[in-house]
Amino acid sequence: MKIPVQRWLEPFSWSAVTDNNAAICKAKSALHKPTSDGHEPARRLWENACAREISLIEALDICRECHRLAPFCFYNGNTFAGIARAMVYPLLQRLDAPTALIVRNTVGHYVAGTIGRTEMEQVVKALEAK
Predict the structure, then answer these.
(1) What is the pLDDT of residues 9-23, one digit of tens each?
(2) Quick one: what percent of the chain has pLDDT higher than 90?
(3) Is residue 9 part of a domain?
(4) Is 29 left (phi over 0), alpha (psi -120 to 50) or beta?
(5) Is 5 inside any structural domain?
(6) How many structural domains comprise the chain?
(7) Residue 8: band (very low, low, confident or very high) from pLDDT cuts 50, 70, 90
C-alpha cells in the first residue's frame, strides 16, 4: 500500500488542537493554558503544515516537534500523539488487528519522543509493503 503525500494535518485545525488539549486538561483537572514560549511557534508550524501536501513521516515529525515546543502547560504529548493516531486511523483499517496495534502504538511513541525516527521509518516502510 503506497502511503500518499497529502494534507495529513488539514482535518486538525489549530483550534481543534487547542480544543483537544482543553478537553484532556479538563478530564484530568489540569490547567489549560498556552505557554509563553512554545505556543506561537507551534501554532505557526502547525498552520503552515496544514495547508501543504506532505508525507506521513513529515506529518508525524510536525506532531513530534509541536509536542517538543510545548504550546500548552500540560498534556502536550497526549494532545499531539492522539492527533497523530487519529490521522493514521484510516490506514489502520486495512490491517490485521495486531499490525494495526503496532502501527498505532509506534506512532504515539514516536510523537512522544520515546522512539526514534529510524524505528518510525521502518514501520512506515513495512506498512507500505503490505
Answers:
(1) 999 999 999 999 999
(2) 93
(3) no
(4) left
(5) no
(6) 1
(7) very high
For the chain, how long is the longest CA-to-CA vector?
A: 44
Q: Which residue range is the domain that position 47 belongs to?
A: 14-129
The CATH number linked to 32 is 1.20.120
C-alpha cell at 46: 502547525
24 within some domain = yes
Do residues 49 and 72 touch, judged by C-beta distance below 8 A?
no
Mind listing the pLDDT tens digit for each residue in 32-59?
999 999 999 999 999 999 999 999 999 9
Task: Quote the CA–CA distance of 115 and 99 in Å, as a whole number.
Answer: 18
In a domain, 1, yes or no: no
Q: Output the CA angle 107-100-112, nearest 5 degrees.
A: 15
How many whole angstroms separate alpha carbon 85 and alpha carbon 104? 6
Cell numbers that stand for 117 in this block? 525516527
